Amino acid sequence: MRASLVTLMAATALAVVVPAQAQKNYGPGVSDTEIKLGQTVAYSGPGSAYSMVGRMSVAYFRMLNETKGGINGRKINLLSVDDAYSPPKTVEVTRKLVESDQVLAMVNSMGTPSQSAVQKYLNAKQVPQLLFYASSPTLHDSKSTPWTVPFAFAYEIDGSIYGKYLAQARPNARIGLLYQNDDVGKSYVRGFRAALGAKTANIVKEVSQEMSDPTVDTQILQLQAAGADTLVAFVSNKAQAQAIKKVAAIGWKPFYIVPYISSSITSVLEPAGLANSVGLVSSYWFKAPSDPTWANDKAMQDYLAFFRKYLPNDQPGDTTSVYTFMGAQLVALALERCGDNLTRENLLKQVQGFKDVELGMLLPGMTINFRQDDYYPIRQARLASFDGKAWKPMTDLITIER
How many structural domains comprise the chain? Predict the structure, then answer.
C-alpha cells in the first residue's frame, strides 16, 4: 500500500512538473505557427529613396519562411507599412500595428524623425522598438527608453570619424559644411565638431538644407564662395546626388566627404554621375557588393545569391540593402534565441545580450555588441575613396571611444 501511494505521488508530481517545463510563453502576435512583427518604412514621400529597407526586410523573412519554415517552426509575418517619412503618419500606423494588429515588436523600421515620434509611445506600451535604421542621441538612450534599440552606425559616431580623420590627416583644411536641418544632420555635426576639437576653427562656412528644398545649388555656391577646399555634406540621398552634380558643374574640386547613409552607388552616385563622383570619400563598416575585393568571399557569394532570387528587380550595389540585410539577420537571431519564450520582455533581453556577434557581411575583425547600458553597436569604420567603379579602402579601422 505504501509503495503504491509513493508511486502514485511520484506520478502525480511528474504530471505536474513535465507540462510546466514544456510550457510555452507567448506575447502578442505569437502562436505555435506564427510570429507577427511590424515595420514602418518610407515607401513614398521625401525618404522614399530608402524604400529598400522595406523590400529587403520583407524579402529576408520570406526567404526564412520558404527555406527554413520560419524560426523554430513559426512563420514570420512582417507587416511592412508605408509612413511616407511623415512622423504623424508614423504615429498613426504604429498605433494600428500595436493596438489592432497586435504585433510582438516593431523591427527594422527607418527614419530618425519617424522613429523619434513613436519612441515614447512604444516605451510606455513596453513594445520593443528594435534594430531600426535611425540615429540620434535620444534614440540610443538605454536608460530613459530601454525598449528602443537601434541598429545603426550612429550618425554622431560616423561624423566623429570624419572629424578625427581631418584633424589628423588634413589639419589645415578649409572646411565647408552642409547639413540636413533635422536630427540626422545635427547629430552628424555634433560628432564632427567634437572630433575636430581645436580644428573646429577650420570651418569657414556652415549652411543647412531642408528635406523639402528642391535643390542645394545655392548652398553649394555659398560654400565655394567662402573659399572652402574641403566639402563635408551631411545630407541624404537626393540632396547628395544634387550636390555632387552641382560641384562638378561649377568645376569645383574640393576634398569631398559624404556620410555612409548617402554613399550608395546605385541610389546616389549613379544618379549624380559616376564620373562626377570620382574622389569622393566616405566611411564603410561592411562589405560592399560593388567592391571586387569580396568577389570570392563566401558571405558575399551567399548574399548575392539571396539577392538575385528574392530581389531580382533591385541592384545589390545599394549599401542600404547590406545593412538592412544584417539588421534582419539580427532580428532573426534574437527570435531564435527566444526559443518558446516569445514575450516582448525576453525578445528585448536577447537583443541587449548580443555580444561579439559575427555577421558575414561585416568587415573582418568587426562584431556587433549591445549591453543594457549601451545601445551603440558599432564604433569603428574605415574610410574609402570612390574610383569611378567602387569604393577603395584608404585607411585602417578608425575607432571612436565614448
Answer: 2
- Number of alpha helices (DSSP H) and beta strands (DSSP E) in the chain: 13, 15
Residue 97 lies in a domain: yes
CA angle (299 as vertex; 297, 301 as ends), nearest 5: 70
Taking CA atoms, 234 is separated from 48, 191, 219, 262, 266, in Å, by 18, 11, 12, 8, 18
Whether residue 235 lies inside any domain: the answer is yes
Shared-domain flag, residues 205 and 280: yes
Q: Are strands 34-41 and 25-26 parallel, antiparallel or unpaired?
A: unpaired
Q: Cell numbers of 233, please?
A: 555634406
CATH of residue 205's domain is 3.40.50.2300
Single-letter amino acid code for the residue at 226: A
Q: Is 129 exposed, middle or buried (0-12, 13-18, 19+ CB in 10 A)?
A: buried
Q: Which residues pair with 148 in a beta bridge?
A: 129
Which one-letter DSSP state was computed for residue 131? S
Task: Give the contacts of 122 (CB within 8 A, at least 6 positions apart).
Answer: 94, 98, 106, 128, 129, 147, 148
> What's the alpha-carbon Rg for the chain, to the nearest Å?
24
Residue 242 shares a structural domain with residue 330: no
Contact assessment for residue 108 and residue 39, using Cβ atoms and an 8 Å cutoff? yes
- Of 134, 101, 130, the C-alpha closest to 346 is 130
pLDDT in tens, the chain (402 residues): 333 333 333 333 444 443 444 589 999 999 999 999 999 999 999 889 889 999 999 999 999 999 999 999 999 999 999 999 999 999 999 999 999 999 999 999 999 999 999 999 999 999 999 999 998 889 999 999 999 999 988 999 999 999 999 999 999 999 999 999 998 899 999 999 999 999 999 999 999 999 899 999 999 999 999 999 999 999 999 999 999 999 999 999 999 999 998 998 888 999 999 999 999 999 999 998 878 889 999 999 999 999 999 999 998 877 789 999 999 999 999 999 999 999 999 999 999 999 999 999 999 989 999 989 999 999 899 999 999 988 888 999 999 986
277 and 347, same domain (yes or no): no
How far is Cα 324 from Cα 311, in angstroms, rounded to an integer? 13
Is residue 387 assigned to a domain? yes
